[in-house]
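Narrative summary of target 7.
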Amino acid sequence: MFGSLEKMVITAYADGEFDTPVGKPFTVWINPASYIYNYKILYNNRQAQGSPGLSPDFNRVGTNSVSFELTFDATGVIPSPLAGVSSAPADGIVGQIADFQALVLKLNGNTHSPNFVKLAWAQLQFQCRMESMKITYTLFRPDGTPLRAKVAVGFVSFTSESQLAKQANKKSPDLTHILTVMAGDTLPALCHRIYGSSLFYLGVAEANGLNDFRKLVPGTQIFFPPLSGSVQ
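Modeled conformation, tokenized:
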């Protein structure tokens, strides 16, 4: 026997720790028929002189992503998931889509960036930010008011540095770490922070494919292998 129907809920947050909800959570009218969860691992392609092929070296775990399609409908055929909300509003789906965009796509006036988002649907629990949205309008009233649309959305995973530190047990140099470069950071200083010594900066530079470790670009993520690995 199957359980009761559970609708996907999309909640926005103002902070990357996902502590401060923004606006009302959005409950989808129709659950996606499917979704794609994409994993990514990044490699540095190295090829020795005279070699017939590449030898990919692990760089870092890339950003995971989730994509799916939502249906917005104001024909009255599909009942609203919210009590007291008309399933056939006068403006068709214009207001529905505007509310959804304000929640996950438009810039938050306080943070000057789109909100952080949490997708919740049974086993899918995904902390992320919106990457793309494509709207295909498929049905209209005689006056042109849209009544139905398919909205393809894409989200990329997001984990704050404090959460990454907790997951990686930052006190241990024998585990993998990933840090985002801030203005003024140097690779030797970052190595000292992670390993307790700046002597490993050449190994970290090699692991990340850095040709010039003296010029770190702010916003770049640096992968710090465990000391038991190839960094030594």
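The chain has a mean pLDDT of 83.
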